[in-house]
Task: structure prediction
Amino acid sequence: MIAAATTDDRKAAETMRPLARLDRAADQIRLGEPSAAISDLFGYLSEVRSRLAQGDWRQFCSAARSTVLGRILAREPIVATARRARKRDSAHDELLDFIASTPLLWADDPTIGTLHTAIATRPLASAIRARESVLRSSAVDRMRLSVEPFVAAVTAEDIRRGWAMDADARRPADFMFVRGLFDCMGTAEAMRVTRAAASRLRSGGCFLFSSFADACPDAAFVECFFGWRPAWRSEGEMRAIAAAAGSGFAKRHWASAEGAIHYCEVLRP
Result:
């Protein structure tokens, strides 16, 4: 029993040892070097995540949020929004709205403002802002190309709700999309949504969906300091979801410039 306990203690110590590096990041921030601290931190967390077992990584993340660095980051607006909202059903949409609509410059506190700019310009936050533009421009292009006009126009409110579709559910759709729904949805459920959406497309219609990429360089930070576990997806998983539309559809996949978000289109010829 004593030997087993000693082994467990050694394992726990090994899991928590990387936390010491977080103290250095906190010191950098307090010494007026928040941008350098954030740049180093993202890379370091990715390294730790890659070598710890899943259970150990979760334990590390929980402990990290209670460190001095965790308390400093909890004051940064994006992290604060994610931490505050994560237990609500609307949490993900709330965070997407915040990232998409909040200025990169945060003037309340110089240190927190620099932290905010560093986090808000990282690949995932940049891709989230770009996704809003992709959805709007795709909707406008589809309206221009559509043989018949939309039954309901696509508006910013539609995008915030995460769905855009015909107002009359009995009629076929020219264009449908999900915004952030698949980011946190299981693959089987995402397939069911895709199958249902594709079945409603009229000829020339398009269903557009997206999801966070498994190669996203910010995944470790999101899991650690947001306390979130999105559905990080590979290109293969995205193609499998698109394939759920069934035969007779054209499919197209691409990734954001930062490699943080995957997109797929399902088109009915």
Summary: The CA atoms of residues 242 and 266 lie 6 Å apart. The longest helix spans residues 123-145. The radius of gyration is 21 Å. The longest strand covers residues 201-212.
